[in-house]
Specification:
single chain; alpha+beta; FomD barrel-like fold; seven-stranded mixed barrel; globular
Length: 175
């Protein structure tokens, strides 16, 4: 899979398990792209919801996507620290149109002190029944949730002390 070029801007498309578009982020700047990892940044990005509503993100964000992990991580740089919003999702794919993934509703919000809360378990259970998630998929998603929470507790990967700072500095060199 050929990825986007560093320095280019891409669209990010989130889908649901049934193939319907969920959300689109316009104009994210690619900071790193390999076969397995894509790191992008955006600030005041236009977001389009499936129901036609639009909104603009409020702060700079560094977004981490992996082709093997069933989650992605949005690190939001706020005045009082870095907040992380983690989507339990399919691994990303990239085509000439956009970076794409399937959003599986379960989310983890991580606070600057590395405490966290799991969100939308009821929405996940509802969609699991409605869209007939296979048992193996349910297992994959929960195993990846556990792996993600281990990264948070150990402050590894995108949760390490200098990860966001390093990529935000790179983002600023493009601006």
């Amino acid at each position: 899979m050929a990825g986007p070029d560093a320095g280019s801007t891409i669209q990010i498309q989130s889908y649901k398990h049934d193939g319907k578009i969920h959300r689109i982020w316009e104009d994210s700047l690619v900071l790193k792209a390999t076969d397995t990892v894509v790191i992008v940044a955006n600030d005041k990005a236009l977001v389009k919801e499936s129901d036609g509503r639009t909104w603009i993100t409020r702060e700079p964000a560094i977004c981490y996507f992996h082709s093997r992990y069933w989650f992605n991580i949005i690190s939001m740089l706020r005045n009082d620290g870095i907040y992380y919003y983690c989507n339990i999702s399919s691994p990303f794919v990239y085509d000439e149109e956009a970076l794409k993934y399937i959003d599986y509703d379960l989310d983890v919000k991580v606070y600057p002190d590395m405490t966290y809360v799991i969100l939308d378990e009821d929405e996940y259970d509802e969609h699991k029944k409605l869209m007939n998630y296979p048992r193996v998929l349910d297992r994959i998603l929960h195993n990846n949730m556990e792996f993600l929470l281990r990264l948070v507790r150990q402050r590894k990967g995108p949760f390490s002390a200098d990860f966001v700072d390093q990529w935000y500095e790179r983002y600023l060199t493009y601006r």
